[in-house]
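Why does this matter for the project? Reviewers at the last site visit asked to see concrete outputs rather than summary tables. In response, this paragraph embeds two records directly. Each consists of the residue sequence and, immediately after it, the corresponding structure tokens. Nothing has been edited or filtered.
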Amino acid sequence: MERTWRWFGKKDKITLDMLRQIGVEGIVTALHDVPNGEVWTREQIRDLREYIEGYGMRWSVVESLPVSEAIKYAGADRDRLIDNYKTSLRNLALEGVKNVCYNFMPVLDWARTDLSHPNANGTSNLYFSHAQFAYFDICILKRPGAEKSWPDDVLAEVEKLKATMTPEDDHNLVDTIIVKTQGFVSGNIKEGDEHPVELFRDLLGLYDGITADALRENMRYFLAAIMPVCDEMDIRMCVHPDDPPFQILGLPRIVTCDADIDWFLHAVDNPHNCLTFCAGSLSAGGHNDVVALARKYASRTSFVHLRSCHIFPNGDFTEAGHLGGRANLVELVRIFEKTDPTLPMRVDHGMTMLGDESRGYNAGYSFLGRMFALGQVQGIIATVDNELGLPYRQPGLF
């Protein structure tokens, strides 16, 4: 697979010069300075593409061209926003960028409750606690009817947390759930916003009455509208699974499992309607057999995120090492290398290690932790290529 890396543009503390030295071939990025819903101009796209190519790499995947909330909940300006989206897609294709990762998750992109959960070896990883998230939902957000969304054992843990959580703990939980994991990726709430909880409540209110079936219909409407442009320009739209792959905050989540993937691929049955196979997101759900899903959907996958999660007995999960967890990355590499050895792949979230925590990297996107993971995955790829009789490429050396 093509070794790619998520890079957050020219302001990223991780530079392209650093990336080409560690074997990265392709860059996964976006025009993060363009507000959601506005057109990406051809000139803006060309400037970034040429900058990347100046370092000997290519812009392999857009992650992401955000789908505006009004498209997801079918707001009054949905069609205008879809027209803007189509224009941006056309401009990307004219500049040779034809693989677009996106998601259809309402309000939240991805959710964790701890961005630096300590591991026994001194590193840290992202972590999701059901009890902590339920505490946020019930006691901080105060979502009407929130208690009904959580099982009795989680509610019992929430009662214990009420006795120990401080105002500082509450602030940190808000910062983790609705600011730090969202703001650096063109999110709805960004660093420095005043009253983030109130803003978040307003966003949730936009989805009042939106059921899973309604959200599916809105996704089908969006895909049907953009597929003619994708067909004309040979653009692959690859949806990212919901992270985590289950319902949260009363919001419908519609890309969580085998049935969901099968639904959206057939709702608009077009070869340009594809999947981002995120092994990490899928492995965070105990209901998912990640290897079986890879075998079933490899032919409709146009981008791969290789990471893995470990689920604890109470349902909490953490990012595992790239050689551990539920995802079985060795077998996934075998499947995807057999299907298409040119598929772009990125290692996705990595451990925070060896001083990463002091360098101001975006949450989940450390340098040394991801470099370590990339080295592990490159070893897997080399071994699998040897098994399959494929030539192994060692980027940048010869």
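We now turn to the second protein, recorded in exactly the same manner.
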Amino acid sequence: MEIFCFLFCTVALLSVVYSAAVVRKTKTQISEMLDALADIKNGNGNRRILANTHDIVSPLAYEINNIVLSYENQLSIFHQTEEANKRLMTSLSHDVRTPLTTLIGYLDAAYKILPKRMAP
């Protein structure tokens, strides 16, 4: 009977020690995730959260990485669209300005050629 109690206490103690180690490791991983998220929030979109496949927090880390990757892709598309819009506005501005400049030049030349009495 004493051996049974000793074995039971040993298994219980090992379980408690193992559980404490898992909790400590999980707390460390969550702390690292918070640091990575703060870094991402400050603009480092290349930062990823590392986790082993069998870790408790790995599904959360993978999802956060997917969200960051999706955000970076959307941000890249936004910048490309913004750059295309700037090029379009520059092109349109040039296309509109050129005919107006030509028309103003013609009107100025016509005004100088007209006899003085016809001019207002």
